[in-house]
Amino acid sequence: MITNNHHPSAMTKAKCDGQKMKGGADMEVLKQCQKWFEQNKIQKVIDALEAIPTEERTPELDCELAKAYITIAEVGEREPFEKALQLLALHEEELGEDHCWNYRIASAYYYLDEEGPALHYFEQALNARPGDEDTQRYIDDCRRRLTLPRFETNFRERTRQAWTAFDEIEAELRAIMDADKLRERGEELMEKLSQALEPAFSSPAFEIGYNGKKYELILSAEGNRSALFPLVYFQKHAPKEVLAHWNILVGRQSQGDFSLRTGGMEVKPEDVQVWVEQQEDGRLSLSLYCEKLLSLQQEENERTWWMLSTLTDQVLGEINSIAHVGTFDFIDAPQAGPFVSLAKLPQMLADLGLTDYRDGSEYLENSYLSYELEPVEDPDADWRLDTYVGSTRLPVLINDYLSAHSDVMDAYHKDGIVAGFLCYPVEGFEGENQAEQILRFRDSLQAAILEHAGADAVTFLGGATGLYYGYLDFIAWDLPSVLDAAKDFLTDSEVNQGVFHVFRRDVGAVRLWEREAEPEVDPQTGSLLSAQDIETLESFTDDVAGYYGRMLHWLENFIEQGVQAGKFTQRQAKQDLQIALWYAFACNNLDEYRYYYKAADWMKDSEQNAAGCAMWYYRYSAALMYCSRLEEALDYAEKGIREEPDYPWIWLQAGKLRSHFGDKSSALDAVAHGLALVPGDYEFLTLQKEIENGAPLEQMEYHWINPDADQTLQQGLDADADNKQRAISCITVHADGLQRFWSIFGPKPEQYTPNAPYTRFPYPVNGRTVDLVFQMNEAGMSKLDADWLEQLKGWMQSGQWLEREHPDGRAARLDTVLVGLDYHIGLLYKLIAEEVYFQIFLNPDGTEQEELFWSSEESGEPELYTEEEMSAVEQHIQKTFGTFERVFHELVSPDIHVDICMVPPVEGRDYYTLVTMGMGAHRMNVPKELAEYKLERAELAITLPPDWKLDQESMEAERWYWPIRLLKVLARLPIANDTWLGWGHTMDNQSPFAENTELCASLLTAPQGIEEDDGVCILPNGEEVNFYQVIPLYREELDYKLEHGADALLEKMANISFVANPIRQKANTEDTLTYEDFDGEMDDACYHIESIEEKKLPVDPITAYNHMAIYLRWCMEHDLMSEEFIEEYGEVVQQVKADPAGVDLREFIRDELDSCLFAVLFNHQGHAFASYYYGESDGPYYPADIDNYALEYFGSEQYHSDEFQDEAYLFVPFDEDYYQAMAKVIAKRFDNWQEQA
């Protein structure tokens, strides 16, 4: 029962004092900077702070300056972020635990594409401010990017770019070196060479010289073994033109006469004493003593260390130092025991039998190290922890991974390099030679990657074997090529899965391949689609594009839900022939470039199952053709002919394409084959004329299948003619048009990306770069009107679009311009201070479409309860409504974070209660005159029957989900409309909430089924959160409330349960007929038979009596028939009660009751119930319930199909299931009627 309780109350206001700021000149500067930030005057901040001498700026001022650099920087611009990084790094010791400092330095690293250190500092920021959602989003994004690194330019390409740059200047370098006898131009040489090498290396270290025969470029690893691998890769890819004049060496070379000078003092190798100890692994531990450097050691220890390490490298050679020196120590007093001078150390290495390495390449080829580990036996432990034996050429990677460090990975990442490993299960390798089998498999995997990705893409480091997995380690210079090759090999191998993981412990793995369980296939269709699914798809078939859109939507939902439910995988869906055929059928008939692209992209995987099916080849070829992939389109048309030559339309496709490629005779031969299969066909006859007349491919496509519709199109009278022309424009490229395009927007930039699916490139505008995207392929782009393109260029170059404010005043910059085939324009903006985008839409004439606006957010950051407020609200819900067992968490929260708490039925409260938690974080715009009642905050509740389905799968259907949607819509309504919600307010949904109900509006009232005083939650600060009950309404009830008020409606609803029931009776809001007034005819089958005949429905006329027979049987079984009826037809009533299957009441109504049901057939109670349920009152209506059952039985799409022509109830099978289902509905209506009466 719905009760009518008002509960606004008044409370005193809670005061909140602003935080006081410290005084001082610095604070005044900070205050001014804050104002400039708020006004988006970032350059003023920079100018003011840069004007303060560096030594006078405090850490806080440096942080503000760094913030300004970060804010003003464009994405892809490095200098401002590097400046910010340098400033922030100065203050790590002092500010290292501060959230803002960590967040800013992390942001600088992030926008420099250094996600490794960015992740570290974002995590530090989160530790300083737990729960910060912005920080968490960045952490998640960093992990995602590090899990599968994708570089704008990988090291393979960077190497090519660097050698190209070097080749362009090497002659100039040689000339300078030849002319510079006094070595005065060394700095100039270093700068030129650095610029050439920087495309490959973020911080190149090198030396140059001349050995008397050739010039030398010596690349230094600066003592790091890990740095040798990219240097050696770079060395091996030196062009022949460069090698004609230069020796490219990796590692500083040994020089016996080398010395260093410092402070007027010369230090030679002979001045250094070395104590040598050989370690277990054969490497050397060196202790160095130099009396000359003792005083320097005390003052500048780092410089002393650098001098001795450099001397050692020069004496031994850098590669020998890396290869043979394990530890290196500078001591301040001589040790006991024998020593040698540093000058004699090379001879000592020779005496010990250690190889003298002259170049990094030779060393790396011979640097494998075997290792053994104690494996972790937990199969769910991190990848690689199950390893018990392995070998590697780069031990630091293994050690860093096991200790959760990533210094090497971060250094590689800066240069577009990825070190990682492939994982594969070893459970399938059995027997005495298991180890040998595992190694053979690893070798085969390595060989396959080398063969298909190429040696230019990868360098292998070794591998390992674990209890559960085998591992192949590598450095990828071009990661996508490596992973593609690995995936292909693993897919065809005997192992069950393949995984890729970078050498970072704190990120996830990438599953390359996993053997899929065979999905359940319908035995009747041989497809993932059942026969009923295919019937549903067939019901969409129509010449109206909207139906094909619904078909595609249905398919995509079917696939998404099937994948989510684990019934099949996306790949299995793409391989399914029936799905592919229907998918292409829908996309191709939508007749837009983007849908043809979707069809072509989807279909390829199902080719393996398309043998003998020319329809597949026809649809795939058509999609390819409309994507301008004409050679492929012809190839697949010819394949289709070979697969199934009796399919006529593949000949039609082949004829068009053969003609396009100039084979007129063969094209006409295709037409002849087609006409032999479908004599007199309009399409073939039309094509025949056009081939003979030499028509272009676009003209051949400018037709409809239906002759009458085609004539309308050819006469220029078809409303869809422009849309069809736009689709056809993407078939062939007009070279002149493309040349004309680039004469306007050229020259064509390097970063030009065509046909993927759209065409995009960066475009300079007034010193800035924006992305220019033409939402079409090159063919469509080549047909655009040149005058309009000139106009577009003018709009862009004017700069009028570059800056814009968000509707709420926040400043934004133009990020992307999107151009459609219909010449409409989209301008995508990014907020300057936030990672937020919004888009406005322009007409072809450049005017703005005022009613259209899109934003990646609704209103900035979501408003949230404080921790204390959330705790109070949660406790109130538990105390008032009951313990909730589940919470429907919101994944995306643009404005407020609205979770739904589900309180299950319990004894004494036989219904679900759903309560919002989060709506009250927003203070609503309550009228000032109501301020004293504290109505600014609210939460909502709705109650549902105990059999309501709230599991995840059921809620995919709107019939179960709509109450949750209603709560979310209502919760956001005050924000969207800057208004408020309170007792007695209504919301009109305009249409029914779901297909199984006529409820279409809602009313807010006091919470039902609780104590009156429990409708308000008092927050810790004294504010109130008011709880309201949501009561769904019928249209008549809403109209009554709007005319008479909420109190009047609630009086009418006094006997109606507050539990939301989609088929509850309506409140009697008008004067209605009484049963005494209700007499005469209730239903006449003749009306239904007329519909069958007029609409030529394929059903037996007896079906017109189905619903009438069901109602009559129920009334007989429940003793609602009149005495007169019993006297005359008592035997029929007894037969129905004893054996309902033995009596066909449809024939009884037709033959004995003159095809009608009359009120006089029923007793007093039956008459009254018929007046309520089968009459013309405002209550529920039996024929409407029959319609609702048909809707539920067939589903919305089939119910509304042309097949049923609004008469779906006539197609429901007349069987016991039908009766029992409707009997439950009638019984519920009867019980409700009795309760109301």
Describe what you observe in this structure.
The chain is globular. Helix 25 packs antiparallel against helix 26, helix 26 crosses helix 27 and helix 29 runs parallel beside helix 31. Strand 1 and strand 2 form a beta hairpin. The N terminus is likely disordered. Strands 24, 25, 26, 27, 28, 29, 30 and 31 form an eight-stranded mixed beta sheet that branches. It is of the alpha+beta class. It contains 49 helices and 33 strands. Helix content is 45%, strand content 15%.
Would you tell me the structural class of the helices and strands? alpha+beta
Low-confidence stretches: 1-23, 1071-1077
User: How many alpha or pi helices?
Assistant: 49
Q: What is the oligomeric state here? A: single chain
Instruction: Please compute the radius of gyration using only Cα atoms.
Output: 40 Å
Q: Could you report the average pLDDT, rounded to the nearest whole number?
A: 88
Sheet with the most strands, sense and barrel status: 8 strands, mixed
Quick one: how many beta strands?
Answer: 33
Shape: globular
Considering DSSP H and I runs of 4 or more, what fraction of the residues is helical? Answer: 40-55%
Question: How much β-strand is present in the residues?
Answer: 5-15%
Distance between the termini: 14 Å
